[in-house]
From TrEMBL, chains A, B, C:
Cellular component, GO, one term: extracellular region
Name of the protein this chain belongs to: C1q domain-containing protein
Domain of life, per lineage: Eukaryota
Biological source species: Magallana gigas
Compartments reported by the entry: Secreted
Residue stretches making up the C1q domain: 43-181
InterPro entries the record matches: C1q_dom, Cerebellin_Synaptic_Org, Tumour_necrosis_fac-like_dom
UniProt KW Signal keyword: yes
Keywords: Secreted, Signal
Length: 181, 181, 181
């Protein structure tokens, strides 16, 4: 028995150590896996992904008002809230945000807000007719922070559209937790 | 021997349990790892990533016709098909899609189609000259579903360009499997 | 003792094998984990993520000149260099790049450059006023390759803006290591 037990233990320890550290001769006893896995598996076991769109066009949106994307293509974890356009970060981490604004009355800019502070901004042009503008920013966000897209302008128009009627076009707001921290 | 075997077994079980569950005192015997790992490692072991671009400009594209991006920057797994512009999902999961359309004859919209049904739409402006418009949507797609970008308009123009000649500009279509489900 | 040791060894081997291969009855001894994990954990243990923005507008940018995004929203690993606008890939892998250019004097195109070679290009329109244009490309990049966004045009204008003053708008350049290869 002794020989087989040691052989199997050696193999198990080798495989596990290789997997966790990428090296041979890992000292498993000295491995703090709970620290190691933070930010690795968490994001995968509890994915945080949302992709929302504006279903109805909205006019006369005032300065500093949140753009509400009332529908979602997907909302894993339900951390984006369609009733007010706010995403609440469930964990501290690195998030990628992308938003597309279709507009058509005057130019303005949009701000990616985190708990009331602008963290990125984008320009929404008005070349004399309807235009579309997209932006992406990857930022760190703390657990429970509120994240939204806000207008910097006055009395602005943001297009929405249903998905079933293809002729319509949608303003969107998406977010992905890339990694916990 | 006994003492050493138990010590090493304890360590191995602790490390593996910590890694898989994020907790101490995991009961390995009760762990259904095959279920746990679904959606975790699969997407990483068999990545599904494509990024395609239009090489040649195309005019007179009719309503409901698929935009064909004839070349790829990358096509891991070869699930995007350059011959018809269609991506066939190899697994059920959450996919991020991004597309950029450069156009210049009239405005229209594009639809992200899944098996014939529009799942998202975007506006392609015409401010009197060439313009560029990008969109992103994250959606769930079933295994074997066909995904493509389609025109809602009539007789539309979509620009393409080779990569080697820098002055040209490219319409693109990219997709990433974020997670299996 | 014998029975307990074998029971625990069996369980540990089963769980580890299931996790690594997704199958029961894995032969751990035959598993080359160091090869298996390449491209899996590496990208997660050492994330490579940057998201940079232009803080100050710049005019008169010449043909083939790199656009310098002087600030970062985030720069995990510090592989993007604010002093010259260049990202140096720390590992060979698949990277997603996204860039948004706000401009307003004439139309031009931008090129995603890798070690001096254009790998993707995008159009930046000029509809008679300020406009914004975004693009994404996913490409394979070799370790130590230099990646940047370059202008194809002459005497071009690229907008920047501070984050604290929301009325300003930002040109951006972001990159994510999706997977090592």
């Amino acid at each position: 028995m002794e020989q087989e037990v040691y052989r199997r233990l050696n193999t198990t320890e080798r495989v596990l150590g290789q997997y966790l550290t990428g090296r041979n001769n890992t000292n498993l006893a000295g491995l703090d896996v709970l620290a190691l896995r933070t930010g690795i598996l968490d994001a995968q076991l509890k994915p945080v992904i949302f992709s929302a769109y504006k279903q109805s066009s909205e006019s006369g949106i005032s300065n500093h008002v949140t753009i509400r994307f009332e529908r979602t293509y997907i909302n894993l974890g339900n951390h984006y809230h369609t009733e007010n356009g706010i995403f609440i970060a469930p964990v501290t981490g690195v998030y990628m945000f992308h938003w597309t604004i279709v507009s058509g009355s005057s130019d303005f800019s949009t701000q990616l807000m985190v708990d009331g502070t602008p963290r990125a901004s984008a320009y929404v042009p008005y070349p004399g007719g309807v235009d579309s503008s997209s932006a992406m920013a990857i930022i760190e966000v703390n657990k429970d922070d509120h994240v939204w897209i806000q207008i910097y302008g006055s009395s602005e128009y943001v297009y929405g559209g249903s998905t079933s009627i293809g002729s319509y076009y949608q303003s969107t707001f998406s977010g992905i937790l890339l990694q916990t921290s």
